[in-house]
Design brief:
Length: 451
Amino acid sequence: MLNLRRGVPLWVIALVFGASLLPGCLSGVNSRADTRILPIAPANTCLVAPDEIISSINPLVYGVNHGPWAVITDITLPLAQEAGITMIRFPGGEWGDENDLRPYHIDQFVMLARQMGSEVSLNVRLLGGSPEKAAALVQYANIDNDYDIRYWGIGNEPTLYATGRGDPEYGVEQFNQDWRAIAEAMRAVDESILLIGPELHQFAADYDRTPKDPFGLDWMTEFLKANGDLVDIVSIHRYPFPQTFVGGTASVDELMAASQEWDAIIPYLRGLILETTGEDLPIAVTEVNSHWSNSLGGEATPDSFMNAIWWADSLGRMIKNQVAIVNYFSLQSQVSIGGYGLFARSAPRPTYYVYKIYRLFGDTSVHSVCDHPDLSVYASTDPEGGLTIILVNLGAADVTRRIQIEDKNYTPVSAFRFDEVDLLHTLPLPAAETLDELLIPGYTITLLQFE
């Protein structure tokens, strides 16, 4: 349950009680309890309804992971700044449960986050850690140095402790006790911090496929029962590929189909949270990429052009499903450890450009739908009355569709396309007749802005 006396940001309060508490949003909007019948797309049409508001968009959906193993250089820092990355989770991955964070780690990380204009999310060690060590980090960051780190996680993927950390009987009951002791110690130092958990790996869309502990208990259900009163933001991780430990990389078709899973995963988790805690707690996807393995150099591996198409659609679906925080894994990775970083040593990988595209997105998600199975459409408005539309073609074939904007007269002001030949580039402004028959090439992202 959220304790509003902790100094919870307005976006968190709004996610729980409706968007009327957010400045600049229409009052009384609470799309989670929405029973409206939204319009469907006519034949051969992508329909956008700017007056049918879905929700305010939390800016923290444009986040990443980062860690001591990764490097941002003088060459890549300006590019990272241009991407509009809003949150950096540190240290991402298993490093934080294998090493103690030191004060100099926090100093260097906060400096980078401030250079990038990003919010900080810090994970303390659970396995091998202690309440005293965690509390000391909060003391150092927020009391001794006034870094004002609001977002704190505890441990990383405890669902793997039994199989990957040498304790075959580590289950959710032990985790719940360990997590709670650390959480209470941290909050005793700074009651304003927001706690993120439980950071489960490979969360899925139904009970049968979500992680279970060595004794058959469901990790998320038992965590919410035990610690739903302390956790502020409920977190999961998801990497759809490889699907087994001996599996290979995804094919292009498999990757393009995988983004649809968010339309099942997030509603299932939201329903479980509400059923178990009685509260509609915000959801965070704090680690996500297409592959959990160190895949590189394939047609659909994380360093590929196709990964960017998948990520643009996945991110759009999470925004539509009102996820509060999203942290892509990760900001940078060397070729020697895999292609999952937005940056290699000195240059961006294709998925980097998805952030530049969504940086132009507005702050309010509105209803949008296409009638073609390979074509996704995402739309937003901004306080100045602007409208932004993102079209993602997940198929190889070109698609021609009418872009129908309901109840408003809008004028195109800019257009961009991301394709494999030119990556992100400017398009000529579409005329009205062009919007009646807009060509969206296969495997592309198209962004249209209107005023």
